[in-house]
Batch of 3 targets.
Target 1
Amino acid sequence: MNIVALTGRLGADPVINNYKNENNEDGEIIYFDLAVNSYGGGEEHTEWIHCKAWNKTAKNFVDVAKRGDLIEIEGAIRNDRYTKDDVQIDKTFVIVKRFWVYKKNTDNPGMNKTEVAKEQDKEEF
């Protein structure tokens, strides 16, 4: 089973990109990096995790997530392979199925957890 759940900080404001799928239909996609901290040997280490989301999930994410926000994601790991400038590139991504954004509530100290996107189109996940 390919399921991943991560919590971290958004590295930059997400930007939506347009694309055409294999059926020549228009769609939207975002790529973003999530800074996830891990601890070992008494030290903290930050891993930058590459993520992407499509269509409704991408639109919802761009609407609410901003650089530095604490984000929780659920999804699946996928390895992509492509060629750029005659060089083969392998890259691992988390395909985001659901996400939550933690926002500070000025009326109540602490964080509010809000589920923003419920699911992504099945053919894209």
Target 2
Amino acid sequence: MKYYRYRPDADAFASVHFEVDVDSMEEHRVLGVHRCDSALLENWIPPIARSLNGDTLAEGDFPSLSNFWRIPIVSQRAWEVLRSLLGRCEALPIIHPTGNRYYIVHIMETIDALDERRSEVARNRTTGRINSIRRYSFVWDRIHGKHIFKLPADSGGEVIVDCRFREAVEQNGLRGLVFTPLPICV
């Protein structure tokens, strides 16, 4: 099975960002989604997304969140196509600059699946946290049947998707993701 880092194509498709507003702290609230595994939808207030200045790129199904691209944002169509593969995820609505329906995909499943001893990683010398992963090795039974998941922050915080996720994107003509296979240690 092949795995891929979740990566929006910010070079070919429009991106969005959330401005820091002293009163609402929208950017901080949005970024907090990546660190939370409990449901947020019940109390969610849709944040207002802004286009990047001068962004004339086409709208895709997976706009990059410029200030933190690891948080998946999907179009209504992408949500409908991928929903059956997403497992413990919820769609948090945003107010998109086009007026079209887009959602933050809140992945409520952080899986400590990186086999750090067998992976090739670069660590922060001060904190010991993983800065980057050159080659991945997973504890395979932890991710069996998972089509999207996130690694813990101490393991890099990456959002990972599998080949079934990629196939669904490609077969349904969804646009805006780059799929580069993760280098896997054997």
Target 3
Amino acid sequence: MDELRHALDEIAAIRGQMARAAEFRGYGPAALAATAGLALVAAWLQPRFVFDPVRQPSAYAWWWAGAAALAAGLIAAEAIARSRRLHAGLADEMIRAALEQFLPSAFAGLAATIVIVRWAPAHAGLLPGFWQIVFGLGVFSSCRILPRPLQWVGGWYLATGLVSLAAADRALAPWMMGGPFAVGQALAAVLLFSVSKRSGDPDAEEIP
């Protein structure tokens, strides 16, 4: 029994190593394009629901956290479906490997947001730039298993995050978040679509 368990553990370890060495093709252009549109809608609606973000940093944080959660759900749903088609038996391991790359940045961003909103609300103007930088670092980390052109997306978020930090006095304006994320997600969608076309991904043929 111990030998069987040991053999199964070795097989699981080998599958995990294969997943970390392979290119993850679960992220698709359709969901990323949808999240670009979501960023635009969230920015447009922000003044209607968050009347004074400077005095209501928690409301501002909740608003964009909700948009981020919805975007993550769209991306995750497409990633799971695509992984089942494109990675077959390694789908679960590939999804797990992709999460391992991005989750540390996500948790760091969440923890720092809670600290700023709860104990340093006067510095809430730093949040948009901080979020963009953290997201860019997550993209850079994920590029180990993603197509190399997506490094441009990480560079975009790093640059816009620095600009937002420099404009912290007006960083809570709707388009300081919506604009960079709309462009960044659209850029990611275009790059992934181009990569999918070159690799012969049948899903790319279905996107007009």
